[in-house]
Amino acid sequence: MEFQRPQLGEIVILRCGDASLAIAPACGARVLSFAAGGRDVLRPAGERALQKLAPYDFAAFPLMPYSGPIFGGGFRHGATFYPLERNLSAEGDAVHGEAWLRSWTIVEQGSDRLRLRLDYEPVEGAFPFAWHGELTYRLSPSALIVDMEIRNASIHSMPAGLGFHPYFVREPQTRLSFAHGDVWPPDSPEAMLVPPMPIEGLDFNMGRDLAGLVADRCFEDWARTATLDYAGGRKVTLTASVAFGKLQLYVPWYDDYVCVEPVTNTNDGFNRARAAVRNHGVVILGHGQSLSGSLSISVGGSDV
């Protein structure tokens, strides 16, 4: 399978009050920027994103029909093993599904709302089941609201998951808080059967400053609300609906952003589901069945 090479296409700008959102529907429905209150809430896409279309340089993107990597070259569902080739040259395994690499169709567009559709048909080496995706971006004067749905369009049952991958601005003295339970181990095929557990130094229940922190972990039983507090009293809140039972946190050492990602499944979720690892979060959808969820990113509160 060749790597997907989407075109940037039309950039759609939504506005509501002083909030603005830029989206590239033809380029994986990726977000280029989200600002409110006169400041960037998400790290805006730079020249590399616009010229190279490098997904990790955008401000956010949707995750369907799974989040995170799938190790082992694929996954088994029922009696069949389905090979997955890597879908991004920078990665060693297939990662984050197909939605962020495909062209979405505009279904409805208003000044503060954009509804998109993706009818996915499988190709060799990619996710092997047909599905239908719905994605709506909405703006209020202080928030971005994202509604997501995936429906099985295959005659067979299929494993599925959802997620959203935002890159929040990280400044000096940025503090992150969210109530949570145990922490899943670092990503690796060897850790597939290892359950989540408490990890010293990765407790955000009472909040902690992100200075000096490097992390890439999935948190179990989070309260579906996470808050970023910035110097000067500015506050950004991520709130997610019940479907998003896990939170993936990525804090790099080399850049000034933090990814706080609501997801439905663990990384390597399809293989964990096959191995009956507790709390894998993967949903099995029969023909016509769907999985949906909503989330908001707001300045000063929640709109979900």
Overall shape: globular
Radius of gyration: 18 Å
Q: State the helical fraction.
A: under 10%
Give the N-to-C terminal Cα separation: 39 Å
Strand residue content: 35-45%
Low-confidence stretches: none
Tell me about the largest β-sheet.
Answer: 9 strands, antiparallel
How many beta-strand segments?
24
DSSP helical segment count: 2
What is the N-to-C order of secondary-structure elements (H for helix, E for strand)?
Answer: EEEEHEEEEEEEEEEEEEEEEEEHEE
Query: Strand pairing plus helix content: what structural class?
Result: mainly beta
Q: Provide mean pLDDT, rounded.
A: 94
Task: Trace the largest sheet across and list its strands.
Answer: 10-11-12-13-24-20-19-16-17
Explain what you see.
The chain is mostly beta strands and 304 residues long. Helices cover 4% and strands 42% of the residues. It has helices at residues 47-52, 269-274, and strands at 12-16, 19-24, 30-36, 39-40, 60-63, 69-70, 74-77, 80-83, 94-95, 105-109, 113-120, 131-140, 143-152, 158-160, 163-169, 175-177, 208-209, 215-220, 225-229, 235-240, 246-251, 257-263, 283-285, 290-299. The strands form six sheets. A nine-stranded antiparallel β-sheet has the order 10-11-12-13-24-20-19-16-17, with no helix packed on it. It has a five-stranded antiparallel β-sheet with strand order 5-15-22-21-18, with no helix packed on it. It has a four-stranded antiparallel β-sheet with strand order 1-2-3-4, with no helix packed on it. The relative contact order is 0.18. The model has no long low-confidence stretch (mean pLDDT 94).
